[in-house]
Design goal:
The chain is an all-beta fold and 116 residues long. Helices cover 0% and strands 49% of the residues. It is built from no helices and 11 strands. The strands form 2 sheets. Strands 2, 4, 5, 6, 9, 10 and 11 form a 7-stranded mixed beta sheet that branches. A hairpin with a 6-residue loop joins strand 4 and strand 5. The radius of gyration is 13 Å and the shape is globular.
C-alpha cells in the first residue's frame, strides 16, 4: 500500500512563496503509470484540483486561478512531487493535498495560510 506525505505548508504574507513537497513510499514514481495531482480545500468550500502532472512526458495542467503562479513538478529518483507557489494570495489559503490518481492514494494535507 502506497503512502503520500505532504510538507512545506505554513503562514506567508501576500506576494510570498512556498514550496510544497509530496513524498511517496510503498511505490516508486518510475513504475507508477498514472498522473499525480495537488488539490486544495478552503474552509467551507469543496476540494478543488489545483494542478496535475502526467507520468508520460510530465505534461502539466493547472486551474486557471493559479496559472503563471504555481508550478508542479516531480523528481522520480527522489520519489517526490513538488508544488512551487509564487505570488501567493489570501484566496490561496487552504489545506493542500497530493494524490496518486490512478491508485487513489492521498496524503493527509498541509495547511497554507496567506495573510498579512
Amino acid at each position: 500500500q502506497g503512502q503520500l506525505v505532504e510538507s512545506g505548508g505554513g503562514l506567508v504574507q501576500p506576494g510570498g512563496s512556498l514550496r510544497l513537497s509530496c513524498a511517496a513510499s510503498g511505490f516508486t514514481f518510475s513504475n507508477y503509470p498514472g498522473s499525480m495531482s495537488w488539490h486544495r480545500q478552503a474552509l467551507g468550500k469543496e476540494r478543488e484540483l489545483v494542478a496535475s502532472i502526467s507520468s508520460h512526458r510530465g505534461r502539466t495542467n493547472y486551474v486557471d486561478s493559479v496559472k503563471g503562479r504555481f508550478t508542479i513538478s516531480r523528481d522520480n529518483p527522489k520519489n517526490t512531487m513538488y508544488l512551487q507557489m509564487n505570488d501567493l494570495r489570501p484566496a490561496d489559503t487552504a489545506v493542500y493535498y497530493c494524490s496518486a490518481d490512478r491508485w487513489g492514494y492521498w496524503g493527509q494535507g498541509t495547511q497554507v495560510t496567506v495573510s498579512s
